[in-house]
Design a protein that fits this description.
CATH architecture of the largest domain: 3-Layer(aba) Sandwich
Number of helices: 11
Number of domains: 2
Radius of gyration: 22 Å
Helix content: 25-40%
Shape: elongated
Order of helices and strands: HEEHEHEHEEHEHEHEHEEHHHEEEEE
Structural class: alpha/beta
CATH class of the largest domain: Alpha Beta
CATH superfamily of the largest domain: Response regulator
Oligomer: single chain
Strand order of the largest sheet: 1-3-2-4-5-6
Number of strands: 16
CATH topology of the largest domain: Rossmann fold
C-alpha cells in the first residue's frame, strides 16, 4: 500500500509543481461587477503610497492591428501573456486565464480596453518576444506571464518602458519595482499558519518538505518566522518523489516529530495522507500533535482520519465560490484559483482605466495601500512588486476544510 501511494505522489508531482509556480485578487469604484456578483469596493480611497512623484502621461498610441486573440475594444490596449502552447499543464492554465479574462471583459463592458492575448510558449524567450511585441503595439499594461523565469524576463523588457506588469508567478523573487505579482505567495501562506499555531501556544515544530525550490522556500520561511517569534524548529527533512526517499525522510524526522507540538506537511496531493500515516506507524502519536498544511491540501483526501483537526492558511472561499459557479456554468468545467487571478487582474486594470480615462496607469495607483478586493479576496501590491493578502485559517473537520479564523475584509 505504501508503495502504491508513493507512486500516486510521484505521478501528481509535476502537476502540483506547475500549480505552485503560478498560483500554487478595486477601490471604491474599480472591481465592481454587475453580472458576477463577485467583486465590490467599499475600501477607502486613499492613493497615497509612494513618496516618489510620478509623471502621469496619456495612454500609449496603439500602432496598427495587434498580434493575438483580441477581446473587447477601446483606446487602451492591454497585453495578456499566457503559455498557450506550453507543454504539460501550462496550456490548461492558459485556457483558464483566457476564459476568466473573457468574463472580466463582459463585466467591465467591451469598450473599456482592447485585451490582446499573446502566447509565450511558456519560455523566457517567448515572454521576451511577446513583451517586446506588446510594447511596440502600444500596450499600456502587461498582464502575465505565468512562470517565474518568464516573468523575470518580461520584467527586464518593461523596466525602461514605464509600463507596469502584473504577473501570475508565485515565486516572490520574480517581483520587482513596476513588476507586480498578483498570485498567492507561499511564504505568506506559511507565515499565516505559523502565526496561528504560535497563537495557540504551540512552540515547537517539525517539518517534512519536498526537495527543490519550493521546499527550500518553506525551510527559509519557517526558520525565519520561528526565529523572530520565539518558536523552535526541532527538525526538518526533505524528500524526493520516490519510495526510498520518502521513507528515509520520515525515519529521519521521527524523533523530532515525537517531541514537536506541530508537524508541518506543506505538500498537497497524496503526500499529507501518506506522510501522516507513516509517521503514525513509526510511533508518533498524532492525536497530541497539530498537523499543519497549506492550501495545496485542497487537492488531498481530507476525509482521511489522520488529517482531522489539521489546519492551513488559504484564501477565503466565499468570493471564489461565486466566481467558480459562474465560470463552471459558462465554460463547463471547474476553474482553479488561477482563473480567479486572471479575472481579478483584468478587472483591476479595467477599473483603473475607467477611473481616469485616457491616462496611463501609474505605480501609485497600483500600490494604493487600501488595496483591492476581487474573486480571490482582498489584496494589495507592495512597492517591491510582491503583494499582501487577507488570508483565512481553515481546519479539517469531518472531511471538510472549515474556516475557523476569517479573512480580513480590508487592510
Amino acid at each position: 500500500m505504501f508503495s502504491k501511494l508513493l507512486r500516486q505522489i510521484n505521478s501528481g508531482a509535476s502537476v502540483r509543481k506547475t500549480v505552485m509556480s503560478i498560483s500554487l485578487f478595486a477601490t471604491a469604484a474599480i472591481l465592481t461587477s454587475c453580472q458576477s456578483g463577485v467583486t465590490n469596493f467599499g475600501l477607502n480611497q486613499d492613493t497615497t503610497t509612494t513618496t516618489e512623484v510620478e509623471q502621469v502621461g496619456t495612454l500609449p498610441v496603439k500602432t496598427g492591428s495587434a498580434v493575438g486573440e483580441v477581446l473587447g475594444f477601446g483606446s487602451a490596449r492591454i497585453a495578456f501573456l499566457v503559455p498557450r502552447t506550453a507543454p504539460g499543464n501550462g496550456a490548461a492554465v492558459a485556457k483558464q486565464l483566457r476564459n476568466a479574462a473573457e468574463l472580466a471583459i463582459e463585466d467591465l463592458g467591451s469598450n473599456v480596453m482592447e485585451l490582446v492575448i499573446k502566447d509565450t510558449g511558456g519560455t523566457p524567450a517567448g515572454a521576451i518576444t511577446a513583451t517586446e511585441e506588446a510594447i511596440n503595439e502600444g500596450s499600456s499594461v502587461i498582464l502575465g506571464p505565468v512562470f517565474s523565469s518568464s516573468v523575470t524576463s518580461a520584467r527586464s523588457v518593461i523596466s525602461q518602458s514605464n509600463r507596469p506588469l502584473i504577473g501570475f508567478s508565485s515565486d516572490p523573487t520574480a517581483a520587482g519595482p513596476g513588476g507586480y505579482l498578483i498570485s498567492f505567495l507561499p511564504d505568506q501562506l506559511i507565515g499565516k499558519s505559523i502565526d496561528f499555531a504560535l497563537s495557540q501556544g504551540r512552540r515547537t515544530f517539525a517539518a517534512i518538505v519536498p526537495s527543490g525550490a519550493y521546499g527550500s522556500l518553506v525551510e527559509r520561511k519557517i526558520r525565519s518566522s520561528l526565529q523572530s517569534q520565539g518558536g523552535t524548529l526541532l527538525g526538518i527533512t526533505k524528500y524526493q518523489y520516490n519510495n526510498d526517499s520518502v521513507q528515509a525522510a520520515i525515519n529521519e524526522l521521527v524523533d523530532a516529530a515525537k517531541s514537536a507540538d506541530v508537524i508541518f506537511i506543506p505538500d498537497g496531493g497524496n503526500s499529507p495522507v501518506v506522510i501522516a500515516r507513516q509517521l503514525k506507524r513509526a510511533g508518533v502519536d498524532l492525536s497530541q500533535k497539530l498537523l499543519m498544511g497549506t492550501g495545496q491540501w485542497r487537492n488531498s483526501n481530507l476525509s482521511a482520519p489522520d488529517l482531522q483537526g489539521a489546519i492551513f492558511a488559504d484564501m477565503d472561499q466565499t468570493r471564489f465560490d461565486v466566481f467558480k459557479q459562474r465560470y463552471s456554468q459558462r465554460f463547463g468545467s471547474e476553474p482553479t484559483v488561477n482563473a480567479a487571478l486572471g479575472y481579478d487582474a483584468v478587472l483591476l486594470v479595467g477599473g483603473l482605466l475607467r477611473e481616469k480615462p485616457g491616462r496611463q496607469i501609474t505605480r501609485t495607483e497600483i500600490e494604493r495601500r487600501q488595496g483591492f478586493i476581487g474573486a480571490s479576496g482582498v489584496f494589495r501590491f507592495l512597492p517591491d512588486g510582491r503583494n499582501e493578502r487577507g488570508l483565512a485559517i481553515f481546519q479539517v473537520q469531518d472531511g471538510q476544510a472549515i474556516a475557523i479564523q476569517a479573512s480580513p475584509s480590508s487592510f
